């Protein structure tokens, strides 16, 4: 997993050097979108082939919903605390 | 929204084609996915580094700008920590990895299914899509109960694009910059935090 972090930071350095090259940036953004399409398609393909995962989709969905609600609620509470302690007083 | 829809279509098409047994000639479970992920991470790095406008937005606003992203990260982790204590099927680390998607469902689910398991990848995909949808639906209510910062924190990484219109409508135009910077910071954090959580 260290590879992933190195690749991101290496990419950031390269991107910073190439930041004035509009062509490179445009191509990179297209490639990102198509890699995401491809990877999620492959992920779907692999899940579709696995009857155990397909069968457990409803329970995964419930877990996902609860995790999502819990994360959102926690963020909302801290955002409110931040608002009360910092933001409200500033113009 | 159109892009989200396309991403979901590709995912759904994959499930259908996999389920029907078509395309069995495509080999899965090989290193193909790993290298595709490596490529994607490198590309994401380039696009972050090359985005001088976003970096300038962050720099101009100063350190105060990091407070709200920090609240979102800590709040999400606190909420997820509590809920994973109650859910039997998922460990705290797995829950935190899912939560660290902050609504960026495409990238987080790809990383998680590659580094951990497909089951958790699907959970991440669903949980983070739900985060975006809940924010889109409830932003006006969040402003009333949790202040104008509420919908921005709830939006997570999506506050810079898909949920930005509803945030500016619900919280006001003067919060657009805060929302934009918040989304940019979290978008950068997603691949880093998800990887670190699964690694530790």
Describe the structure.
The complex is a heterodimer of chains A (91) and B (200). Chain A starts with a helix and ends in a 6-residue tail after the last helix. With 91 residues, chain A is mainly alpha-helical. Helices cover 86% and strands 0% of the residues of chain A. Chain A is flat. Chain A has helices at 2-17, 22-49, 51-55, 57-85. Chain A folds into two domains: 1-55; 57-91. Chain B is an all-alpha fold and 200 residues long. Chain B has one domain. Chain B contains ten helices and no strands. Chain B has helices at residues 2-20, 32-50, 52-61, 67-86, 92-99, 105-115, 118-146, 150-155, 164-171, 176-199. Chain B is globular and about 55 Å long. The mean pLDDT of chain B is 89. Chains A and B meet through helix 1, helix 2 and helix 4 of A and helix 1, helix 2, helix 4, helix 5 and helix 6 of B.
Cα end-to-end separation of chain A: 44 Å
Helix and strand pattern of chain A: HHHH
What is the element string of chain B, with H for helices and E for strands? HHHHHHHHHH
Shape type of chain A: flat
Number of helices of chain B: 10
How much is the average pLDDT of chain A?
88
Q: From the structure provided, what is the oligomeric state, counting identical versus distinct chains?
A: heterodimer
Short description:
Chain A has 91 residues and is an all-alpha fold. Helices cover 86% and strands 0% of the residues of chain A.
Q: What is the strand and helix layout of this fold?
A:
The complex is a heterodimer of chains A (91) and B (200).
Chain A: H1 2-17, H2 22-49, H3 51-55, H4 57-85
Chain B: H1 2-20, H2 32-50, H3 52-61, H4 67-86, H5 92-99, H6 105-115, H7 118-146, H8 150-155, H9 164-171, H10 176-199
Helix pairs in contact in B: 4-5, 5-7, 5-10, 6-7, 6-10, 7-9
């Amino acid at each position: 997993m260290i590879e992933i972090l190195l690749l991101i930071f290496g990419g950031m350095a390269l991107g910073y050097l190439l930041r004035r090259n509009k062509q490179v940036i445009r191509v990179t953004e297209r490639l990102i979108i198509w890699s995401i399409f491809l990877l999620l398609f492959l992920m779907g393909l692999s899940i579709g082939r696995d009857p155990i995962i397909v069968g457990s989709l409803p329970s995964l969905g419930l877990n996902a919903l609860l995790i999502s609600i819990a994360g959102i609620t926690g963020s909302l509470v801290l955002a409110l605390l931040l608002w009360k302690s910092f933001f409200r007083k500033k113009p | 929204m159109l892009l989200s829809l396309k991403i979901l279509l590709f995912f759904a098409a994959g499930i259908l084609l996999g389920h029907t047994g078509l395309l069995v000639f495509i080999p899965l479970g090989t290193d193909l996915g790993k290298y595709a992920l490596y490529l994607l991470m490198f590309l994401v790095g380039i696009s972050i580094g090359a985005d001088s406008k976003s970096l300038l937005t962050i720099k101009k606003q100063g350190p105060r700008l990091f407070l709200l992203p920090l609240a979102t990260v800590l709040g999400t982790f606190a909420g997820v920590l509590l809920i994973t204590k109650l859910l039997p099927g998922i460990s705290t680390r797995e829950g935190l990895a899912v939560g660290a998607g902050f609504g960026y469902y495409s990238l987080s689910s790809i990383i998680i299914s590659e580094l951990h398991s497909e089951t958790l990848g699907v959970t991440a995909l669903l949980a983070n899509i739900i985060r975006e949808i809940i924010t889109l639906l409830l932003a006006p209510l969040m402003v009333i109960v949790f202040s104008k910062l509420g919908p921005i924190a709830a939006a997570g990484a999506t506050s810079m694009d898909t949920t930005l219109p509803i945030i500016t409508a619900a919280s006001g135009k003067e919060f657009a910059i805060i929302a934009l910077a918040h989304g940019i910071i979290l978008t950068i954090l997603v691949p880093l935090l998800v990887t670190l959580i699964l690694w530790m």
